[in-house]
């Protein structure tokens, strides 16, 4: 993965689309999300996407099909999800995603790897979104100056 791509992941906004949308930013706590989901789900939620595997752009139609398949998988697993969207800091890209809960870190990692994603957002026990690299399982904290 290039440094530019890593920086793009770190600087993106991960939106949870609910009646009042919630913006998630890497390494910035989001208490509003904790209040919405309930404090007991901290450390059991992730922002995931099946779209654009390995950051290779696909058509809107192909990504929509991937989202449908992913949502069916999540429903079969008994997981709850809210629609979302990732947006590049400079508005250069936009990608559908989902906030998924309750799930373990390992399940989030397994799904992200199955969907061939380079990274995903893990919400830790203080509702701070952390960027996690799927190739190493590394959680990047305080990743930006």
Could you describe the 3D structure shown?
It is a single chain. With 145 residues, the protein is an alpha+beta fold. The protein has one domain (3-136). 30% of the residues lie in helices and 28% in strands. It is built from 4 helices and 8 strands, in the order αββαβαββαβββ. The chain has helices spanning 3-11, 31-37, 60-76, 105-114; strands at residues 13-16, 22-25, 45-48, 80-87, 94-101, 119-123, 129-133, 139-140. An 8-stranded antiparallel beta sheet has the order 2-1-4-5-3-6-7-8. Strand 6 (119-123) and strand 7 form a beta hairpin. It is globular and about 35 Å long. The two termini are 20 Å apart. The model has no long low-confidence stretch (mean pLDDT 90).
Q: Count the DSSP helices.
A: 4
How would you describe the shape?
A: globular
Integer tally of domains: 1
Overall mean confidence score, pLDDT: 90
The value of Rg in angstroms is 14 Å
Order of helices and strands: HEEHEHEEHEEE
**Structural class estimated from helices and strands:** alpha+beta
DSSP, total strands: 8
DSSP strand content? 25-35%
Quaternary state of the chains = single chain
């Amino acid at each position: 993965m290039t440094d530019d791509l890593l920086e793009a992941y770190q600087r993106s906004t991960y939106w949870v689309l609910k009646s009042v949308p919630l913006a998630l930013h890497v390494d910035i706590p989001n208490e509003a999300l904790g209040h919405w989901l309930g404090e007991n789900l901290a450390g059991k939620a992730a922002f995931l996407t099946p779209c654009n595997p390995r950051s290779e752009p696909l058509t809107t139609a192909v990504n929509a099909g991937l989202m449908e398949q992913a949502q069916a998988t999540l429903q079969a697993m008994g997981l709850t999800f809210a629609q979302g969207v990732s947006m590049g800091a400079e508005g250069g890209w936009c990608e559908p995603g989902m906030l998924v809960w309750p799930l373990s870190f390992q399940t989030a990692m397994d799904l992200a790897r199955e969907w061939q994603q380079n990274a995903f957002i893990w919400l830790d026990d203080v509702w701070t979104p952390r960027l996690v690299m799927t190739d190493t399982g590394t959680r990047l904290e305080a990743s930006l100056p």
